# Entry
Amino acid sequence: DLSATSGPEQEDRLVALRTRERAAGFDPARPPLLRITLVRLAPHRHTLITTYHHILFDGWSQTLVLAEVLDAYTDPESLPPVQPFGRYLAWLGRQDRDAARAAWRQALDGAEPTLVVPPASGRTAGRDADTPETDVLERLLPQELTARLDALCRRHDLTLNTLVQGVWATLLG
# Structure
């Protein structure tokens, strides 16, 4: 509750709280991997701080989880019953692994590895120990292209990261 403070002092305390949350980190072997902190700034003004381990979800999924948290807060009966993860594991255990392997063998028949670096170069894919960190190329995209990419992602329920990873995989393929 920071409602007893205001102005720069309140902002400083909020920044300090966010910094502590970020610095606290997570141990994947010990719950929780998600923390939600509601901070009262004034009687009718609050901020919600969500801190989570990236293993739980990405930025796109975070909005879905937060929407469910808010739905559960305003109307606990609005969410469907939780489906136990064990049910999925049981389904997975009933799948025919031999048939899956055969399907993947057929799908990948004739596929060859992608050589990111030609073997004659003497370099390996990835960063060599003696490769300087400046071996990075950065380019800003025009605002119009960025807007078109964002729209494409929204139309297909993708994150920009997923789109870029897919393009990269296609390029390497």
